[in-house]
Specification:
The chain has one domain (10-251): 3-Layer(aba) Sandwich (Rossmann fold). α1 (19-30) crosses α7 (204-216). The chain is 48% helix and 14% strand. It has helices spanning 19-30, 42-50, 65-79, 102-130, 154-171, 189-192, 204-216, 226-234, 240-251, and strands spanning 10-14, 34-38, 55-57, 84-87, 133-138, 176-183, 221-224. It has a 7-stranded parallel sheet, sandwiched between helices. It is an alpha/beta fold. It contains 9 helices and 7 strands. The structure holds NADP nicotinamide-adenine-dinucleotide phosphate.
Length: 254
């Protein structure tokens, strides 16, 4: 476990009832940060909060714009405007696009993209007014190119990656740091439901280490594992023919 100096007094983590968000919130709290934790599962947030007095539960469905605004205001009223906001709530749907499901696609876009927008509209104006803050968006290595069975997921993460780039341009001169977190496959409840090959699958704790170290250094991008990052980014430099051929060969069609 890495020893990351607590550079934030306060944080807000969405998607904190399980997986990456849960572990990130727990580690931040252990290091002395007061952390507001949000997700839909109020019971899981309550048991997380019971583990450390620095964790405060704020149940929330990020797809609901008015609720997100209200909860953000409650968070600010309780712990002050957070120094760090990790917009991590997300869902993963992996199925063949031959069975394309428009409702599932809408849910993924509403959770993974609109959910982030809902939180941003609540926290950016006060951060701009204060002149400081750190906003981290949960992307994915799946955001760089398409791959099999990812039609309901990868496009949402591409949107998040683009969003982070745009935010960085507009917020860097306002004292606000922006980070895009692009993990490869990490062992969480999300990947437990994936029944396709997961090259480079890594355990949760080292993934949380990488994220916290990158955040503490205020890096723009945190991507891991390094070899999957390299492969994915190499994939952006080859022709479509080469990309489709190699990806079909390594990940299969169905
Ligand atoms: N695990 C990986 O391999 C991997 C790789 C790259 C990126 N990611 C990204 O990392 C993030 C966390 O994923 P994970 O792997 O930790 O999965 P996870 O264990 O399933 O956690 C997802 C979290 O998001 C919350 N959530 C889902 N829908 C929500 C909603 N409408 N409103 C509020 N919270 C909601 C869930 O809580 P409730 O169900 O209680 O609401 C849960 O706390 C996601 O954005 C995912 O896309 C994961």
């Amino acid at each position: 476990m890495s020893d990351v100096r607590p550079t934030w007094s306060t944080a807000w983590v969405t998607g904190a009832s399980s997986g990456l968000g849960y572990a990130l919130a727990q580690r931040l709290a252990e290091q002395g940060t007061r952390v507001a934790v949000s997700a839909r599962s109020a019971d899981k947030l309550a048991s997380l909060a019971a583990s450390n007095a620095n964790l405060l539960p704020f149940p929330l469905d990020v797809r609901d714009t008015a609720e997100t605004q209200r909860v953000a205001e409650e968070v600010i009223a309780t712990i002050g405007l957070p120094d760090l906001v990790i917009l991590n709530a997300g869902i993963g749907i992996f199925k063949n696009a031959a069975r394309f499901d428009g409702d599932a696609f809408r849910t993924a876009v509403e959770t993974n993209v609109i959910g982030i927008g809902n939180a941003l509209s609540a926290i950016i104006p006060p951060m701009v007014e204060r002149g400081s803050g750190h906003i981290a968006l949960m992307g994915s290595l799946a955001s760089f190119r398409g791959f099999p069975r990812a039609a309901h997921y990868a496009p949402t993460k591409s949107a998040v990656r683009s969003l982070a780039e745009c935010l960085r341009f507009d917020l860097e001169d306002k004292g606000i740091d922006v980070t895009i977190i692009n993990p490869g496959y990490v062992e969480t409840p999300l990947t437990e439901r994936v029944d396709t090959p997961m090259p480079g699958l890594m355990p949760l704790e080292p993934a949380v280490d990488r994220i916290l170290v990158g955040l503490s250094k205020r890096r723009y991008e945190i991507a891991f594992p390094w070899y999957m990052e390299m492969i994915v980014k190499l994939g952006m430099r080859v022709t479509n023919f080469t990309y489709f051929t190699i990806t079909r060969w390594t990940l299969g069609r169905a």
